[in-house]
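Notebook, bench 3.
Goal today: get a predicted structure for GTPase from Muriicola soli so we can plan the truncation constructs. The sequence was checked against the plasmid map this morning, with no discrepancies at the termini. Length recorded as 106 residues. Pasting the sequence as submitted so the record is complete.
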Amino acid sequence: MNELFDAAHKVLNPATYQCRLCELTFGNFREKATWKKFRKKSDISMEFLHKDEFLAQYSSKFMPKYSFPIVLEITDHNLEQFLGTKEINELQSTEELIGEINQRLA
């Protein structure tokens, strides 16, 4: 349902759409081909959650306050920031996102 609302929001009022990570990985109605190809070829286990889904699933008084969008990684039973909001918002393309992920993994 969130995906349907996101698609409608992007089409009807794109100037107020606030998730840069969604803009980098999805077009108006489907996942961008470049991102999908990267994701499918990657050995990285990935889970994608909208902010409300993440907060419902992981919210706890012990969890740090995150700004969104964010990419987190699981390390030794902890969630750690992999890409922060500032870095994500500065990316100009899907290719830049993929390059940044690959660089940080190297």
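The chain has six helices and two strands. Residues 94-105 form the longest helix (12 residues).
Flagging this for group meeting.
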